Amino acid sequence: MKFRNDLVGPRSVHRKALLKALADELPPNSIRFASKLTAIETQEHEGSSISVIHFGDGTIIKAKVLIGCDGIHSVVARSLGLAEPVYAGRSGVRGLAVFPQGHGLDNNVQQYGGLNRKAGFVPLNDKEIYWFFTTCLAKGADPSNDPEVIKREVIENYAKDLPPIYLDVVRHSDLSTLSWGPLMFRYPWHVVFGNLGKQNITVAGDAMHPMTPDLGQGGCVALEDAVVLGRYIGTSFVQNGQIVPKEMVSAIGKYVEERRWRVALLIAGSYLSGWTQQAGSGGVMKFLRDTIFYGFIFRKLVKLSHYDCGKLDF
């Protein structure tokens, strides 16, 4: 089966360009690279809590507010007592194809679905195309960490019967961008009932809501987190002229409650979308997918992804 997203209207952004745009908004030397967070402790300071953050190189930082954006296996999330993400039953390859002379394709997303697999690509600009491939594998059964082997396995084995246009995209891959790994997610009820914030500590992005990529909302929702959290903390900052530790408890609490149900629904919707599209073409599954999922549920999920998280008023 082949799907096109012409009517949904997705917008693709090169990750490198997005990260640069965000980093450029920060004061010089705000970002520390190659820093591994090893431990977090809480201290009382003038009647409020502050976080003491320990890094692998021995550096210690005291913070009035700690926002864990440290990925799926978040140390900050673990410190809050959040349950670990679980394996979704699928693994995925992601890569960037480069066409120095231009690929000549339109900007539409193209997807290919079938039993136990899903593939697709989306042009980022005139010369670069992001592509992906997911399939059902036992955890730990990923073919290799070698980019050459990954590309060969996709072309010669897993995707060999997909259209030539897809295989050509894979052949043009920049090997440095290829990765193959398990798809992970956090159970939605762990987000709904879990401890997403404590005192002056909270999480955002994959540290809060790791989800499968089937709705393409992981990065989008992380940006929503940033706006919502920035609005609550920023309001306090503007009113006081500085970050007041004792007010961070209230700001983080409001952020957590605003985000909890939305991200839980997107986690569930992403998982359901992937499962229905890769679960085969038997009579029952065909009915569930074509009649129930695409007839009713998918429209709700698309509407859920079209979300306005508001603006920063300062």
Notes on the protein architecture:
- This protein has 314 residues and is an alpha+beta fold.
- The chain has two domains: 32-85 and 187-304, FAD/NAD(P)-binding domain, CATH 3.50.50.60; 86-185, D-Amino Acid Oxidase, Chain A, domain 2 (2-Layer Sandwich).
- 39% of the residues lie in helices and 23% in strands.
- The chain is built from eight helices and twelve strands.
- The strands form three sheets. It has a six-stranded antiparallel β-sheet.
- A hairpin with a 2-residue loop joins strand 11 (197-198) and strand 12.
- The longest helix has 34 residues, at 245-278.
- The protein is globular.
- The chain starts with a strand and ends in a 9-residue tail after the last helix.
- Belongs to the 3-hydroxybenzoate 6-hydroxylase family.
- Residues 19-234 form the FAD-binding domain.
- Keywords: Monooxygenase, Oxidoreductase.
Which fold does the CATH topology of the largest domain refer to? FAD/NAD(P)-binding domain
Q: What would CATH call the class of the largest domain?
A: Alpha Beta
What shape does the CA trace take?
A: globular
Order of helices and strands: EHEEEEHEEEEHHEHEEHHH
Count of distinct strands? 12
Radius of gyration: 21 Å
End-to-end gap: 48 Å
Q: CATH homologous superfamily of the largest domain, by name?
A: FAD/NAD(P)-binding domain
Main pleated-sheet profile: 6 strands, antiparallel
Strand content: 15-25%
How many domain regions? 2
What class do helices, strands and sheet pairing give?
Answer: alpha+beta
Overall mean pLDDT: 86
